[in-house]
Write a structure and sequence with these properties.
Layout lengths: L1 H93 L4 H33 L5 H18 L1
Helix pairs in contact: 1-2, 1-3
């Protein structure tokens, strides 16, 4: 009979341990999900920060290119208006045009060409800049995936 009581005591103790393991497992699972969620959130924030820094660097580079293009176009317009305009005016006079007309027509034609080149540079980089978005697309996609993952873990 001592053996029977020992067996029953062991069964009772085993049952209590299983019940405690189940409670501990549920608690552990909740803690694990919480910890993983916190870590995931921190990683998402870091990803968003990194992605935003990359996007701002691209926007900054495009903006600098637009500025440089504008300055070059302006400087080019001045230099060309002074040098080439004089040469065009001379050619127009030799072609039979009145000197009074050739004096203003040469700089106008030269300035028009320079402004077209500078304008093309500005528009090219402006279009590239418009293609950039400041929305952290990778982070948004990753957060959607994480939301789905968390939903699956909790259901």
């Amino acid at each position: 009979m001592a053996n029977a009581e020992t067996y029953e005591q062991r069964q009772s103790t085993y049952g209590e341990e299983q019940e405690m393991d189940q409670h501990r497992s549920l608690g552990s699972l909740v803690k694990e999900i919480r910890d993983e969620s916190i870590e995931l959130f921190q990683q998402e924030v870091e990803l968003a920060r990194t992605e935003m820094m990359e996007k701002f660097a691209v926007v900054k580079d495009r903006t600098v290119s637009i500025g440089i293009g504008a300055v070059i176009a302006f400087a080019g317009a001045i230099v060309l208006l002074m040098g080439i305009a004089q040469a065009i005016s001379v050619v127009l006079v030799y072609a039979g045009m009145a000197a009074v007309v050739a004096t203003w027509l040469g700089p106008v034609l030269t300035g028009l060409v320079v402004l077209l080149v500078g304008g093309a540079m500005v528009m090219s980089n402006k279009n590239k800049l418009e293609e950039e978005t400041v929305v952290p697309e990778k982070t948004v996609q990753s957060m959607k995936e994480n939301k789905q993952w968390l939903k699956e873990k909790t259901t």
